[in-house]
Design brief:
Strand content: under 5%
Radius of gyration: 26 Å
Number of domains: 3
Number of strands: 0
Distance between the termini: 19 Å
């Protein structure tokens, strides 16, 4: 009996309620403490040295602390060092370009585009390219009389170096803390998926669990040294992650009713508890086989350079918005036009869809306008010396607590901290003029950003969905070419499995971009939702079969593959995937043969029916 096809998911939409509600998420106390110290310390050191403006320049490098928050410490050190160097170069270029007039606009555009491309291609995570673009733009407007461009760069680099030391202090308390947190988060996601099996929330929960497990393997494998030391804690966490993956497979393969649901959910939660323990109650052996994790840097770069990759599209949008903002600022002789540039880049740099970008625009504008009141109070109080350092540290502490829970509230404090830093610790000539300029710059910059998105977004945003669906099916075909012979653990097979997991993530991302488009453009994406989710079920079924073969061992894996595929099973599946891929991109009829391996038959039938709609 055929399963009913999934209905279209609820499309992303603009919600005024998000302006006041606290979204689910952790209170990031340690990150808030660390970033506040990183920001306050350079200012305090500058005060002690008798040069507060130099301390404020160094404080730009303190925003290095915002990056790599969830990464293992060794990998985090590399990311933070690279980030600090990037901030130093951005500010130095901005200061250097001050003497060349129009070159300042070109510098801002190039910094914004370069940061956007690299941060998205290498998946740096929030706050992404925005802070680099802001640093470069601020550099073009810094009132530096007693420092050269390279002095400014060194000060920023010093602030970044201090942030690196502070953000690595956790190694003294728990050297494997980030790895434990990643495994614990995956255990919670797997438990939620197991609870959701058989319900309407199953597809969403399955994808969330797959992402969490993928992030865990990135943390435990991809972001570890190529030849890690014989670390028993790392081995134990990898072993726990394999058990979580087995439970995930049990959920995917579960029959009607899932009779072992409660037992499996309990096991997943217990594994999360064990992951958080610094001392294991029982010894665990290192897993024999490990997945490859994410794409390598070279593979990510290669994928991002293929037009029209989302990374290239976003990079060009950011460049256009930065250029327009800079030209508007120059045309109207706006003194601090970098606020306008930063606001425009903020709206675009993450590559969000129309609904989320519009939401962020409204949040930024309202938060800024309300934050001008708080900024005015701080500027009126004129904090100096250590009081200035403490004020900046306190504002940064609140920002980090709020930024992922309620962005509008966080922007209130972001506005205050930005204006306080830009005042240089001195009395502003006219507080009201400064507040007015910041408000106008933000409104214009956000309008430019959302306007660029409006005119550059294709009318059929969802056009990428059929191409991504076909690419995912081709990736599944490549994996099945290995598993049909019982091979799931060779280097080539692991690479194919990694690519399939990547395509599954990219497919849903493409759908989300289409579903978040303007109302008149999202209809096509919603019509494709049954095909997208049917393909997702197929892809995860293939990945689950790979894990089953891996656990079976080489000899038994060959027997299982022969039993499942028989003489013509792989040929039939391969032909079916070709037909389905063509149906997705060309609209051809998707009639496939009836003789398919049993473990894929239902998913292939569902996908065929969904494409025939």
């Amino acid at each position: 009996m055929n399963r009913s096809l999934p209905q279209a998911s609820q499309a992303a939409s603009f919600r005024l309620r998000q302006l006041i509600e606290l979204r689910p998420g952790p209170w990031r106390w340690w990150l808030a403490v660390h970033t506040s110290i990183c920001l306050a310390a350079p200012v305090a050191i500058g005060w002690a040295a008798g040069d507060v403006p130099a301390g404020l320049i160094a404080a730009i490098g303190a925003f290095t602390a915002l990056y790599g928050a969830d990464r293992p410490y060794r990998n985090r050190a590399l990311v933070l060092a690279t980030t600090a160097l990037g901030f130093a170069c951005a500010v130095a270029l901005g200061v250097w370009s001050q003497t060349f007039g129009p070159a300042a606009i070109v510098t801002v555009v190039l910094v914004a585009m370069g940061a956007t491309f690299l941060c998205n291609a290498f998946r740096m995570g929030p706050p992404g390219a925005y802070m680099f673009a802001l640093a470069g733009a601020v550099g073009t407007g810094l009132p530096i009389q007693h420092l050269t461009w390279w002095h400014a760069g060194l000060l920023v680099l010093a602030g970044g170096g201090l942030s690196l030391l502070v953000r690595l202090a956790g190694t003294l308390r728990d050297p494997r803390g980030p790895e434990r947190n990643a495994v614990a988060a995956a255990s919670a996601a797997v438990a939620r998926f197991l609870q959701a099996v058989g319900s309407s929330a199953e597809d969403t929960a399955r994808h969330a669990a797959a992402l969490a497990l993928h992030d865990t393997w990135n943390t435990l494998v991809s972001r570890q040294p190529a030849r890690p030391s014989n670390d028993s804690v790392l081995h134990r966490l990898r072993s726990i992650s394999r058990e979580l993956h087995r439970l995930f497979i049990d959920g995917i393969s579960a029959g009607p009713g899932f009779p072992d649901r409660d037992t499996r959910v309990k096991q997943a939660r217990e594994l999360g508890t064990e992951a958080r323990l610094k001392q294991s109650p029982s010894a665990r052996e290192a897993p024999e086989h490990l997945p490859l994790g994410r794409l390598s840097l070279a593979e990510s770069l290669r994928e991002s350079l293929i037009w029209p990759s989302p990374v290239l599209v976003v990079t060009l949008r950011v460049g256009l918005a930065a250029a327009v903002s800079g030209l508007v600022g120059a045309a109207f002789n706006i003194e601090r036009a970098y606020w306008m540039v930063a606001a425009a880049v903020l709206i675009l740099h993450q590559g969000w869809d129309w609904s989320r970008s519009l939401q962020r625009t409204v949040e930024r504008v309202i938060g800024t306008l309300l934050g001008l009141v708080l900024a005015g109070v701080v500027l009126w109080l004129e904090p100096q010396g250590l009081w200035l350092a403490l004020t900046l540290g306190a504002l940064q502490f609140v920002i980090e607590l709020l930024v992922i829970r309620n962005y509008t509230l966080a922007v209130l404090f972001i506005t205050a901290i930005a204006l306080t830093m830009s005042s240089g610790g001195h009395e502003a000539p006219s507080i009201l003029v400064m507040l007015w300029d910041r408000g106008v710059d933000t409104v214009i910059g956000c309008a430019i950003g959302i306007g660029v998105l409006l005119v550059t977004a294709p009318r059929a945003v969802a056009v990428q969905i059929p191409q991504e669906l076909a690419a995912a099916l081709k990736a599944a075909q490549e994996v099945l070419n290995f598993v049909a012979t019982g091979d799931a653990v060779s280097t080539e097979a692991k690479r194919a499995r990694r690519n399939l997991q990547h395509r599954a993530i990219v497919l849903l991302t493409a759908y989300e971009l289409g579903a978040g488009a303007r109302a008149q453009d999202r209809r096509y994406a919603e019509e494709l939702w049954p095909a997208v989710i049917s393909a997702q079920r197929l892809l995860y079924r293939v990945l689950a079969f790979c894990w089953m073969l891996e656990d079976a061992g080489p000899d038994r894996a060959i027997k299982i593959a022969r039993k499942e595929f028989g003489a013509d099973g792989f040929t039939n599946v391969s032909n079916a995937l070709d037909i389905l891929a063509n149906a997705a991109t060309d609209g051809r009829p998707a009639t496939i043969a009836s003789e398919m391996p049993e473990f894929l038959k239902e998913e292939l039938d569902d996908l065929s029916r969904s494409l025939a709609r």
